[in-house]
Amino acid sequence: MRRIDQINVIPLIDVMLVLLAVVLVTASFIVHDKLNIELPQTQQSASTAPLPETRHLALDAQGRLYFEAQPIALSQLSALLHADPKRPLELRVDRRTAFGDFVAVVERIKSLTPPPPLTILTEHVQP
Fold first, then answer.
1. Which residues of 93-120 are buried (b: 16+ CB within 10 A; e: fewer)?
2. N or C: which end of the chain has fewer CB within 10 A?
3. What pTM did the predictor assign?
4. What is the pairing mode between strands 89-93 and 118-120?
5. 59 neighbors 65 (Cβ within 8 angstroms)
6. Sorted alphabetically, which keywords does the UniProt record give (predicted)?
7. Residue 75 and residue 71: Cα distance in Å, rounded?
8. CATH class of this structure's domain 55-120
C-alpha cells in the first residue's frame, strides 16, 4: 500500500464554505436600526458660562439650523465659520433632532481647515 504525501484540503474547504454561509445568513438577520437605545444624560458639566467670544449654533428638532439665533441654510455655514476660524463654536442640538442632521452639521464644521474649536452642549440633569 502506497502512502499519500499530500494533505487533502478539499474537505477542509467545504467545511469552511459552509461555515462562511452560516455566518453570512446569520449576519443578515441582525437589525441595527431596531435597537432600543437611550442616549446618556450628564450630571456634571465642565462650564455653564459661555465665553464672550463664542459663536452659537443651534439645530432644532425639525433640522433647521440657526447661527447666532438667525436661521441659515447648511450651505451657508462654511462661509460664516470661515470668516473667523479660530473663534470657538458652541453647538446646541435638540434631543429630538434626527441623527443624520446632526452628523451633516458636524461634518460641515470639521471640513473647515482648520476646524474651529467645537463644544457640543448637553442638558444638565439634577441627580
1. beeebeeebbebbbebbeeeeeebeebe
2. N
3. 0.58
4. parallel
5. yes
6. Cell inner membrane, Cell membrane, Membrane, Protein transport, Transmembrane, Transmembrane helix, Transport
7. 12
8. alpha beta
Phi (first) and psi of residue 92, to 5 degrees? -110, 120
Query: Which residue type is seen at 78?
Result: S
Q: Which residues contact 126 (CB under 8 A, 6 or more apart)?
A: 43
Report which of 64, 56, 45, 114 is spatially closest to residue 90, judged by C-alpha positions.
56
Q: Which helix (H) or strand (E) holds 14?
A: helix 10-28
C-alpha cell at 43: 450630571
Contact between 44 and 78 under an 8 Å Cβ cutoff? The reply is: no
2's grid cell:
502506497
d(CA 120, CA 126): 19
